[in-house]
Amino acid sequence: MSENEKLTETRYPFHGFYRPFVAEMEEIEAERAQEQAIRQQPQTLPTTAELPNALQTTSTDIGRLPEPVTKTSPPGIISVPVQDDAHLEVVTSKVSNEEIQPIEEPAWVADLIGEEYKEWEPGLVAIEAMTGTGKTAFILGTLLKWCVDECHRTDGRRSNEILFLCNRVPLRDEILDALRKAGVPNAYIDGYDVVTLMVWDDDAQEYSMMKVSTYQRYEEFLSRNPVRAKYEIRLFRYIVCDEAQYFFTDAPFNKNTTLSYNIIMKASQHATVIAMTATPENMFTAWMRKGLLAQNRYYYLPKKMSHIRKALIYSNDLEREKLLNQIPDGEKALVLINDWAILRKLKDLYGDAVGCYCSVNNIKGQIDALEDCIKDGKLQKRIVFTTEVLYNGISIKDKTLKHIFVETWEPLKIIQMQGRKRPVDETDTCTVYYRAPSRKQLTKKRDWNQYDLDTVEAWLDYKHGKPEKWNGILTQKDAQERIERCKALTYIHAEGTYQINPMLVNNMRQMRDLLDALYDHGYRATMQERVWDKTLQVSPREYRDEAITHYIIDNFGKAMSKQELQAGLAEAGLYKPGKRPIGQSILNGKLKKYHVQIGTTTKKCRVNGKSTTLTYWLLVQDHP
Question: What is the spatial distance between Cα 598 and Cα 616, in angstroms, rounded to a whole number?
């Protein structure tokens, strides 16, 4: 390097360690300016030409999906049959490259299945398709219309009745609303279930065409009146299991999921069982491995959520509060949390300014009614907090919903939660915020899950003639408490033995796999593989508070007293001071995302005339 180059070279303190922060802040500022410019543009009102609902009302059709995508060769290419020893000329029409369009993949479930549903026989059909691809619309539109036509064509001799099972009451109500909007006649609630009737023109005959119920209601029916329930299920030609992941996701708090699963699987001997979900986990692959699901009856339609234009990762309640406070006027937020106690705390904090919804069946009581939080697909408050009860089962079509916070770390639920928003047009976009769990939370969850799984697997070994582990558990002082705690084991007094809940055991094993991945590979790598690569067109970015970033840049490497650095970090917003001073290890955990940690240095000085060594804190680069 020449002397002139040395003189003009820019030198950065601490080897320019903080420069990535500056670049990131400049990127954020550019994004913010762009968003502000978009907001200042005049907004056009939606017109009837905008993207319609998947189900449209017509005078002759029961729900109509968008026209199927026609697969054709690109224009300008002519196929010529190959002949031996023949000279072939390349024949093309005069079409520019810009006009050649690639072959499009199916965008909707109805396009993917085509006419094949007319050939379905008794057995299993699996539809794995992302949210917003028309799974429910296919059943309520294409399949139901065909069943009605077949009933008319055969003068009622071929009554293809559908049993439609879903996992949440709001979803059941949404299906009823969709049926009415689609012009389906005589759709009403009979007691608890939704029923549709098809009436002949002369009103002389009527046939029930579809019954819509929740799994929980149907399980209650199976338990209360098993003889009638088992007789009735034989009347259905189609059994639709919407949100089919229900059987194992609800197993931790609903012991009857195995009951409905077994009855439905048995019913596949006489009916076509259609299982639909965006998140089957290993259910469909297990069916194929066991020979229960034919390859040509498995329909897969991935779809990335292009309306999610930005994604951020945050870590704690304080960061969530900051992000909510930054939401511009006129925009709304949906926050999906994990716990009723947190919901209650948020309601006490914000009052009637926010909506807080949980299940009407929550043993701790409901807070706000659903219609006070979400009504006709639109948020009724600027911020709506809800438990996982709404992780699926409701579609939100609200252009003002611009922010979705997902506080669970289970991939299956994350995919469902971020899919609650259904964009009404190409300008209907949003930001999704993902909350990363702490190492401490993961460790606690993993230890308890493994503790219960060890109990189950010890009993399974005992059943297969290997009693060592089970006998070892029985010798422990807390044996009774441990066995009673394990929800996958139920003692049957009449038989003097334990019964296993296979759905819950499957859930626990999936949870073990997930927790091991999160623990060993980290949150970002696990979510990238299981969620983001599958569903997003953007790469999530770590949320870093600007005030904290500025404080780190201004004070990096500066030695100061412990109290001074604690106070500075608190003032910058890293944490809220409590009754007890926060320690170095906890602060380092909060600073990790900023790639710094608290180090120490010592200085010799004289205090009250005596020589002593004082310890100072300072911010240094974090090393993995």
Answer: 10
Contact 311, 433 (CB under 8 A): yes
- Identity of residue 325: N
Domain range list for the chain: 3-37, 109-301, 308-436, 440-521, 546-621
227, 222, 211, 294: which is closest to 262 by C-alpha? 222
The overall average pLDDT reported for the chain is 82
Q: CA torsion angle for 350, 352, 358, 364 (degrees, to 10)?
A: 80
Mean pLDDT along residues 581-601: 92
Fold of 308-436: Rossmann fold (3.40.50)
Q: Are 331 and 402 in contact (CB under 8 A)?
A: yes
Give how far Cα 216 sits from Cα of 132, 167, 258, 573, 617, Å.
25, 7, 11, 45, 57
More confident residue, 480 or 45: 480
C-alpha to C-alpha distance for 471 and 503, rounded to whole angstroms: 25
- Intrachain domains 109-301 and 308-436 with the same fold: yes
543/561 Cα distance (integer angstroms)? 28
CA distance 172 to 169: 5
Residue 477 to residue 593: CA distance in whole angstroms: 43
Tell me the pTM.
0.78
> Of the given ranges (12-26, 132-146, 220-234, 302-316), which has the lowest mean pLDDT?
12-26
| Token pair for 328 | 């511009």
DSSP string, 146-209: HHHHHHHHTTTSS---EEEEES-HHHHHHHHHHHHHTT-TTEEEETTEEEEEEE-TTSS-EEEE
SS3 45: coil
Q: Both tokens of residue 102? A: 């690639």
Residue 314 has pLDDT above 70, yes or no: yes
The pLDDT value given to residue 193: 64
Is residue 173 very low, low, confident or very high in pLDDT (cuts 50, 70, 90)?
confident
For residue 382, give the nearest of 424, 353, 356 by alpha carbon.
353
Q: In whole angstroms, how large is the CA radius of gyration of the chain?
A: 30
Provide the pLDDT for residue 165. 94
Residue 20 pLDDT level (bands cut at 50, 70, 90): low
Query: In the beta sheet, which residues pair with residue 542?
Result: 313
- CB proximity list for 131: less than 8 A, separation 6 or greater: 278, 305, 392, 415, 416, 419, 420, 422
Count of Cβ atoms closer than 10 Å to residue 538 Cβ: 15
Residue with tokens 């762009």: 34
- Kind of pairing between the strands at 162-166 and 401-406: unpaired
| More confident position, 83 or 471 | 471
Residue-wise over 45-55: b if at least 16 C-beta within 10 A, else e?
eeeeeeeebbb
Q: Which CATH topology does 109-301 take? A: Rossmann fold (3.40.50)
CB 370 within 8 A of CB 379: no
Cα dist. 166→170, 183, 414 in Å?
A: 10, 21, 19
What pLDDT is recorded for position 338? 85
CB atoms within 10 A of CB 332: 21
Please report which confidence band the pLDDT of residue 531 belongs to, taking 50, 70 and 90 as the band edges.
Answer: very high
Nearest-angstrom CA–CA distance, 556 and 142? 64
